[in-house]
Amino acid sequence: MAGATIFAVYTDGKGNVTVSPRDGTGHFEPLHSSSKTVTLLAGSKADATSVVANFKYRADEPLLQVQSHSSPFIGSWKEGPAFNTTDLAQTLDHHDDHSIYTLDLVSANVGVSQNPFLGASAAQLVGQPQGGAELDIALGKRLLKAHGTLMGVAWLIVYPAGAILMRLRWGGVWAHVFIQLVGTSMVIAAFAIGYTFSGMYGIRFNNTHTLFGASIFGLILVQPFLGIAHHLLYRREGKGTLFGLLHCWYGRAIIILAAVNGGLGLQMARNSRGGEIAWGVVAGVALLAYLGASVYSVKGNKMQKKVKDKDDEVRGGEGN
């Protein structure tokens, strides 16, 4: 929950609650923020059946859009022994589960300065909530899985495979073009899914993974045009071109950046340690395979050059 403002609520041991404002920094325990002030209001309580926290917080975060009709919220909880403390810096364990939803903050405007949680109107609002729409968590998980799978296959398998075929000169240039077009189509689809998912969960372009990913997406769309420019010049001049050199090194750099960003995405999605290791292993295998193909290609070119030189010498001798 990087970038989130978090309110940790737990029992104070005196029949009431403690509300600790904290800053979300990612997949780490959120720590108490002394720069944020929460005022506990009347009506808060903690008993054997319920925990109620009524509090006032004056928001100054630029990402919190108080005029939004669908502001993203995340709720999480942990079962276990009560804390029974007023310590705002109480250590928190990892939550058991969570819920993601949106709230209509425009409808939440009470228009009064006194405690809105007291009185008959407050009881009606609590009994019949009008301001939220819970997101389809199952849909979100499917979107997240599809995004990660498409990106992983494209960057770690398809793109390297197309580059390796070109180095080994298997299938010719059109096999390379076809495979890289498949990879680019997968990246475009995965980006669209990620864009939709990040908008649903309020994490679009407010964290390293999505910002870095959008930049990489823009960069990869330039790559085909470098290849086309090289191909046209090569057909006309019959030798290597600057565009060809740029096309090769530009593509290699983007694949490396994408592999790094994929790791950031796994951390953001709180993937298992095994999943992160698997990502690194596949990326390493792809890199080694490409390096092996490059070495083989260089040796093959040298061998062809030696054969050509010998043929030229033989022809020259025959001419004499």
From TrEMBL:
<keyword id="KW-0472">Membrane</keyword>
<dbReference type="Pfam" id="PF10348">
    <property type="entry name" value="DUF2427"/>
</dbReference>
<feature type="transmembrane region" description="Helical">
    <location>
        <begin position="173"/>
        <end position="197"/>
    </location>
</feature>
<keyword id="KW-1133">Transmembrane helix</keyword>
<protein>
    <recommendedName>
        <fullName>Cytochrome b561 domain-containing protein</fullName>
    </recommendedName>
</protein>
<dbReference type="InterPro" id="IPR018825">
    <property type="entry name" value="DUF2427"/>
</dbReference>
<feature type="transmembrane region" description="Helical">
    <location>
        <begin position="241"/>
        <end position="265"/>
    </location>
</feature>
<dbReference type="InterPro" id="IPR015920">
    <property type="entry name" value="Cellobiose_DH-like_cyt"/>
</dbReference>
<keyword id="KW-0249">Electron transport</keyword>
<dbReference type="GO" id="GO:0016020">
    <property type="term" value="C:membrane"/>
</dbReference>
<feature type="transmembrane region" description="Helical">
    <location>
        <begin position="209"/>
        <end position="229"/>
    </location>
</feature>
<dbReference type="InterPro" id="IPR006593">
    <property type="entry name" value="Cyt_b561/ferric_Rdtase_TM"/>
</dbReference>
<feature type="domain" description="Cytochrome b561">
    <location>
        <begin position="146"/>
        <end position="266"/>
    </location>
</feature>
<feature type="transmembrane region" description="Helical">
    <location>
        <begin position="277"/>
        <end position="298"/>
    </location>
</feature>
<keyword id="KW-0812">Transmembrane</keyword>
<feature type="transmembrane region" description="Helical">
    <location>
        <begin position="146"/>
        <end position="166"/>
    </location>
</feature>
<keyword id="KW-0813">Transport</keyword>
